[in-house]
Design goal:
heterotrimer, A alpha/beta (181), B mainly alpha (307), C mainly alpha (620), A: Rossmann fold, C: 620 residues, 7 strands
Chain lengths: 181, 307, 620
């Protein structure tokens, strides 16, 4: 059975589809990573359109609380096995928004992050490096963030609720805004 | 005795299915590689599609109920069924039923099943994608029909196997020489059938979140990939049988298919996406004109098959 | 009692009983159902060649009237009555305002139409059928609209009937007899001498048949009437009543076979014209269908589109053309019946006919959903269901004549049928289920039995078409054509190739088994509710997203409107409306004349007399 798992892990590492959640300035580093200069497709990594199809959730840049809500929703719509890459210092410690009232500081308090890419901005080489590292981890069977999330769901949920409760009145008069016609 | 025969056919059928799938996946991988080279990238390994399919089949997924499951299975099973009637090189599993229109309609069953599955997911993006796919189908099937009918009239038979046999004996006997306009129309229609640019409106990723596939993940997306790969094999295979004289063996057959697919990729690499109504009406102009013209030429040459 | 007569009398008796007991809904329905069943039993008694004649004194003339069973009529009788049984059985649980006694009168009329040997009986039965169905349509749900639908239908029917009546009198004046057979043979005889005369008379008949079948340009009443008719009656209207026209066409089509008329592509030119009427009908029906939002109207368009296929095929009047046409008539009856019965089942549950207000019903009505799915697969011509074989044969019949334009048009109509079928499928059954349909239930046990039966029939006649093709071959034989070779129940023999439906069925089944096996073996899935859907990261509850808002079904093919706009500018409907207005204007003018002034009456009388005398002198 373990050989089978190894084979499965090997192929998972060779074919990782990515959903990029670009919130801030980090998005600009992705086009060169995808296209001719650095070409991430040679590692079997392709951008995908929806969370249902993706294996990697790449989060570039700062996360406002409202954005965090969407990230969590998206992450929960993804299916196991799934991995999260935190891109840039904003996901690590809030970056230049470290003292902002509505930006979270550490992403892995809310969803499990498998690899952080440090820097402001990290260059495409750093992103590729992270992809290769993730591939090795997946093939070794070490990238198990999604299992951690299930196991420690209460802790994550508590952290999420603590900040998300500040977002609750998104709109005062929902009916008025969403009414059609 | 009947059972033994059935089992032999069954195992042969499995073989054909596996071969077609492998060829389709390989073509897909090579296509990606060629595309990468055109864009001056290194590109993924040509076995990338195999790894993708393996990964997809081993990944978890969400289901929206039994209609979703049934639809996605019905999306690739009829494709495999249609394959059993296709002359692949010298070999046809069921030669006595290899009627061309029947194969075309069996393929449509696959599209119908796929449509049912993705629409059962209840996502408006998939509905938009499906409506685009259907509108495109109204476009490309019409010139293709004109070509099918001219081949019928020209060959005076509806069996793919016989159409292939009639082209035996060298390049000058191929239908591509005898019906060049029809081949041209088919080649354009093939671009639409395979959903490559400029006819990829249905699965516009940045526009409608990959359209029909929006809710598919894991094995469901894998089934979609099987459908696409087998469909690629089937559609290019039909064109090879119709115009390029079939093949004496499997490898030459694949080579001919690849030539067709290569043209499709080259067109795909240089053209942008059309808007959907432009794409549909495009098929009703030049390709349909070519197809009809070919049919008229055939009728004038060969006369009418009066009963 | 003579069984031929029984086929007319039993429904009339049943009708009287149903009319008396109409207040007791269930009893009335039961009587309707039982009468259909008893009529069906009498069918076993009759055989090809049975004949019954009687004499009638009419205006001093001794007219011979009669009933006769030909292969065509027995095929039609079996088809219509069997479908009637299925429908009336389903209607036992249906709550729409369908009047059983009118349906039974229609049945009597329909039996008479199929058996009549003389034009008087034919015309009388035609009128009886027309009027009983018109009265039926008055009982639709929306009173105002259903009256409009019924009147529209009545006007078109009356127009057709007048045209047929003039034809009948012209013919009988020429030959001195009302017998259909001798009239047709007389027309065949003089076709070489007076082609225009013959054509004129036959066209008068064809107008009536085209109106009844909804052939272009007389298709305009179909959507209005089907859209407003009582739900329980629509399947009968579209599956059975549209076939009377086909039967009518087949009476006169043998005229041109073997006669010396100029031909186009080896086809007598009147047939060629008729074929184009059929092809244009097929395309017009398909294109108009996918712009509809009312489900009954959508399938009304679909229905006459298929009649166009049938007409195009039988107009060829070759063995394969005739076989294909009759086969498609049978298949159309079957799949259209399945589609309409499931559609009215859904309408009765959700209480609307607008497709943009439905959606996601498959979760609530799985069996209805499956029946509808197989129905549309058959309608789209997908093997191995009924409907594939006939379309496949129609294309071969057409192309064997080198009719490339018409064939491509028909193929276009066939692909376009895919569009409107998918649109209806999506809008009714798939997509998001609205919360207002949370309490919708599957149909009752009676409905389930009907649906399973139709599902089985669609598959059975799909894989064993020989059971239909055998009687069709004897029809073809009776028209003096050489029937297609038969080689077993599972084969369909076309012009270019023949296929074994059972082997296709087995292949499809095996691949499906393989598919489900693969589905079960690979990684597991998780069932999620419809709310858990891709929304580009947006959380549905935050934005008060309702299922109705997340269902895309209104204006489904909007981009096509622009491409098809030039074709839609032609408004046949408008023509008839204008015609109606001018008739009204003339009527007003005539009313003005009748002011009571004696002088004007005298003028009119004298003028009329003069015209009458001149006309009589010229004609006689």
């Amino acid at each position: 059975m373990s050989e089978w798992t190894e084979i499965v892990d090997y192929f998972r590492g060779r074919s990782m589809w990515m959903l990029h959640y670009c919130t801030g300035c980090g998005a600009i580093e992705l086009p060169p990573t995808m296209t001719s200069r650095w070409d991430m497709e040679r590692f079997g990594i392709t951008p995908m359109a929806t969370p249902r199809q993706a294996d990697i959730l790449l989060i570039t840049g700062y996360l406002a609380i409202k954005t965090l809500k969407r990230v969590i929703y998206t992450y929960e719509q993804m299916q196991a096995p799934k991995w999260v890459l935190g891109f840039g210092s904003c996901t690590i410690n809030g970056g230049i928004y470290w003292d902002s009232y509505n930006v979270i500081e550490r992403l892995d308090k809310y969803i499990p992050v498998d690899i952080y890419i440090a820097g402001c901005m990290p260059r495409p080489e750093a992103i590729l490096d992270a992809f290769v590292k993730l591939k090795e981890m997946v093939q070794m069977g070490e990238a198990k963030g999604y299992e951690k999330y299930v196991k420690n769901y209460d802790w994550y949920k508590a952290n999420q609720d603590k900040v998300l409760k500040r977002t609750s009145p998104v709109l005062k008069e929902i009916e008025k805004v969403t009414k059609i016609g | 005795m009947v059972i033994v025969e059935f089992l032999i056919k069954l195992s042969q059928g499995f073989g054909i299915g596996a071969l077609a799938l492998a060829t389709g996946l390989l073509f897909g991988g090579i296509g990606r590689k060629i595309m990468a080279r055109i864009q001056r990238r290194y590109g993924p390994p040509f076995t990338q599609n195999f790894m993708d399919l393996f990964k997809l089949l081993s990944k978890g997924s969400v289901s929206h109920g039994w209609a979703f499951d049934l639809g996605l299975v019905a999306g690739f099973a009829p494709m495999l069924a249609a394959l059993m009637f296709l002359p692949i090189g010298p070999f046809t599993l069921l030669p006595s039923d290899s009627s061309l229109i029947m194969i075309v309609y069996l393929m449509m069953m696959a599209y119908l099943g796929m449509a049912m599955g993705v629409l059962a997911s209840g996502n408006p993006n998939s509905a938009i994608g499906m409506s685009r796919a259907l509108m495109l189908m109204v476009g490309y099937e019409v010139p293709f029909a004109a070509v099918i009918f001219s081949v019928y009239l020209f060959s005076k038979t509806g069996y793919l196997t016989q159409i292939v046999t009639q082209q035996a004996g060298g390049f000058m006997n191929w239908n591509i020489v005898k019906m060049p306009l029809g081949f041209l129309a088919t080649e354009i229609a093939l671009q639409g059938m395979l959903g490559e640019k400029p006819f990829d409106q249905a699965i516009a990723p940045a526009e409608i979140a990959s359209g029909p596939m929006v809710e598919l993940g894991g094995k469901y997306l894998g089934f979609g990939m099987i459908q696409h790969s087998v469909g690629l094999f089937l559609e290019t295979g039909i064109v090879v049988d119709l115009f390029l004289g079939g093949a004496p063996n499997f490898w030459i057959f694949i080579a001919k298919q690849f030539v067709l697919y290569f043209i499709v990729i080259l067109v795909d690499a240089i053209l942008p996406r059309l808007r959907i109504h432009e794409a549909t009406s495009f098929f009703w102009k030049l390709p349909l004109f070519l197809g009809i013209l070919q049919a008229v030429i055939v009728i004038i040459q060969g006369g009418v098959l009066n009963v | 009692m003579n069984s031929l007569l029984a086929l007319l009398i039993v429904p009339v008796i049943g009708s009287a009983a149903a009319a008396v007991l109409q207040r007791y809904r269930l009893v009335e329905r039961l009587i309707t159902f039982l009468t259909f069943s008893v009529t069906f039993l009498f069918l076993f008694e009759i055989k090809i060649g049975d004949i019954l004649t009687w004499h009638l004194d009419f205006l001093g003339k001794n007219l011979e009237m009669g009933l006769q069973i030909t292969p065509l009529s027995i095929f039609m009788l079996y088809m219509t009555i069997a479908f009637g049984i299925v429908l009336t059985f389903y209607n036992l649980s249906e709550r729409s305002k369908m009047k059983g006694f009118l349906l039974l009168l229609t049945l009597a009329a329909s039996n008479w139409i199929f058996m009549s040997t003389d034009l008087i009986g034919f015309f009388f039965a035609w009128e009886l059928m027309g009027w009983s169905s018109i009265l039926m349509i008055f009982g639709g749900k929306r009173e105002e609209e259903s009256r409009h639908g019924a009147l529209y239908y009545a006007m078109m029917s009356i127009g057709g009937s007048y045209s047929m009546l003039i034809g009948i009198f012209l013919l009988s004046n020429l030959t001195g007899t009302f017998s259909i057979q001798s009239n047709v043979s007389y027309l065949t005889l003089i076709l070489g001498l007076h082609p225009w005369w013959v054509l004129g008379i036959v066209s008068l008949f064809f107008v009536a048949f085209m109106v009844k079948s909804g052939i272009f340009p007389f298709h305009t009443w179909v959507p209005h009437t089907y859209g407003e008719a009582p739900d329980g009656f629509v399947p009968y209207l579209s599956s059975v009543m549209s076939k009377y026209g086909v039967y009518g066409f087949l009476i006169f089509l043998p005229l041109t076979s073997g006669a010396h008329v100029p031909s186009v592509l080896g086809l007598a030119w009147p047939n060629y014209v008729l074929l184009w009427f059929g092809s244009v009908t097929a395309v017009a029906g398909s294109v108009l269908a996918f712009m509809q939002d009312d489900v009954k109207k959508l399938f009304a368009y679909s229905s006459f589109s298929n009649l166009g296929f049938i007409l195009a095929a039988i107009a060829l009047f070759t063995p394969i053309g005739l076989t294909a046409g009759m086969f498609h008539a049978f298949n159309h009856l079957l799949f259209n019946g399945a589609i309409f019965i499931t559609v009215i089942a859904v309408i009765s549950k959700v209480g609307t006919t607008r497709m943009s207000e439905m959606g996601g019903i498959w979760q609530k009505m799985p069996l209805t959903f499956l029946t509808f799915f197989v129905g549309i697969a058959a309608a789209a011509g997908i093997p191995p269901f009924a409907g594939f074989g006939s379309k496949w044969m129609i294309f071969q019949a057409m192309i064997s004549h080198g009719l490339i334009f018409a064939t491509v048009l028909l193929f276009f109509a066939s692909i376009a049928s895919f569009l409107y079928l998918m649109r209806a499928f999506h809008a009714i059954f798939l997509g998001q289920l609205s919360h207002k349909y949370d309490n919708v239930k599957e149909v009752s046990a009676i409905g389930k039995i009907t649906e399973v039966f139709l599902l089985g029939a669609l598959i059975f006649f799909g894989i064993l078409p020989g059971f239909v093709l055998d009687p069709i071959n004897s029809i073809v034989n009776s028209f003096g054509l050489k029937p297609l070779p038969t080689s077993g129940y599972e084969y369909i023999n076309g012009f270019f190739s023949s296929i074994n439906m059972v082997s296709i069925f087995i292949v499809v089944i095996v691949t499906f088994i393989f598919g489900f096996a693969l589905f079960a073996v690979v990684a597991k899935h998780k069932k999620v509710p419809q709310e858990d859907n891709y929304t580009a990261g947006q959380i549905p509850q935050d934005w008060n997203l309702t299922p109705e808002m997340y269902q895309f079904s209104y204006d489904f093919y909007e981009p096509m409107d622009k491409e098809l706009a030039p074709f839609l500018k032609v408004k046949i409907d408008g023509f008839f409306k204008g015609f109606g207005e001018s008739v009204e204007y003339i009527g007003e003018a005539i009313k003005e004349i009748f002011t009571g002034n004696v002088q004007i009456y005298t003028y009119l009388a004298v003028g009329g007399l003069v015209i009458f005398v001149i006309a009589g002198w010229v004609v006689w």
